[in-house]
Amino acid sequence: xxxxxxxxxxxxxxxxxxxxxxxxxxxxxxxxxxxxxxxxxxxxxxxxxxxxxxxxxxxxxxxxxxxxxxxxxxxxxxxxxxxxxxxxxxxxxxxxxxxxxxxxxxxxxxxxxxxxxxxxxxxxxxxxxxxxxxxxxxxxxxxxxxxxxxxxxxxxxxxxxxxxxxxxxxxxxxxxxxxxxxxxxxxxxxxxxxxxxxxxxxxxxxxxxxxxxxxxxx
Amino acid sequence: xxxxxxxxxxxxxxxxxxxxxxxxxxxxxxxxxxxxxxxxxxxxxxxxxxxxxxxxxxxxxxxxxxxxxxxxxxxxxxxxxxxxxxxxxxxxxxxxxxxxxxxxxxxxxxxxxxxxxxxxxxxxxxxxxxxxxxxxxxxxxxxxxxxxxxxxxxxxxxxxxxxxxxxxxxxxxxxxxxxxxxxxxxxxxxxxxxxxxxxxxxxxxxxxxxxxxxxxxxxxxxxxxxxxxxxx
Lengths: 218, 232
Prior knowledge:
The structure holds two protein chains of two kinds.
Chain A: H1 3-20, H2 31-36, H3 41-64, H4 74-96, H5 98-104, H6 115-125, H7 130-160, E1 162-163, E2 166-167, H8 182-210, H9 212-217
Antiparallel strand pairs in A: 1-2
Helix pairs in contact in A: 1-7, 3-4, 3-6, 3-7, 4-5, 4-6, 6-7
Chain B: H1 16-60, E1 66-72, E2 78-80, E3 91-95, E4 101-111, E5 116-124, E6 129-137, H2 147-150, H3 152-156, E7 161-162, E8 177-179, E9 188-190, H4 196-219, H5 221-225
Parallel strand pairs in B: 8-9
Antiparallel strand pairs in B: 1-2, 1-3, 3-4, 4-5, 5-6, 6-7
């Protein structure tokens, strides 16, 4: 590969996680934290950062040990690696802010069983170089953070009338409490999925128009 | 997915020793990392927790500037705590700038709607009232049950909650109770609409704790009054 191609490839690995293969909106992975902790912007942001941190470091370690780990025990070792970094993240959040840790509750520990992380370790980091794996972790993590923030902003603004704790509409605002409750998470997620599927469909149609011969062949 | 390289499936034989060794060494790395992080963050976490408790104690007893830790022993006597780590039940006597007793902060805990709720409330022996309440730990439903810590109207219930003792100082004259809607006396707490179970849990634990501890505090009031911490 030429220098330029390598650059393009790296960019592609990163962007794929953010947009084309967004773990939440496209691959529909890690739904448990997406639905549970997106009731406020701060919670969503901290969850996104913690997940990104675990993704990058577990991808890094899995990728650097990929030639040493026998296939038969790989899942067990991946889980061990992931659980370690989740515990580290858990302590770090507790040390930085007790309030945030309290509001995230059990969901920090549940990052261990977030299928995005084990999925990336198994599908990507165990087969790719360290650099590419770290980029993949960063991309997927950013994509996840972007997605939970999308949900968190809508839910907090509509459900509580605030953005990251700051009141937006004044005291007369009548919040839509459903948005803060689990049901609201499903509504907002559904609306986003509709939007992203619509984008995908539109792109397909545009491509067909651009290549009329192919459309004829169909 | 496009990025998965095609692999030639071949059954390679791996010795049990290698499997054990790789799992064992990863376990060792994991252990070292966790223990290191734990040791490194422990002082910060402890400081955060202590600061939060301290802030809460002074929040529920407005005007307090110093505090002293006590416990209640089996003979219903109040004794100062020497080893805070080893004592499970603690009450905090708080004093104003001129060393007069403002009140006592008491911690209570009980099962809520989802998990244990821990809270602290301030009792003023002089006014015979509970003058403040703060939730220390709860995982109640966001938006509903968590109003026990956020709803100003509900928290205002505890700004002057009457806990006057009977003449023999053995129990409360009027037990603390929960009502839906309008309060008819000042020993009642009005429930949050939509969070009855969480409101009931808070009421229950405060009622129980007050019934148990306030008579003991009244009995030992002189011990508390005359043990203001000496400022250095």
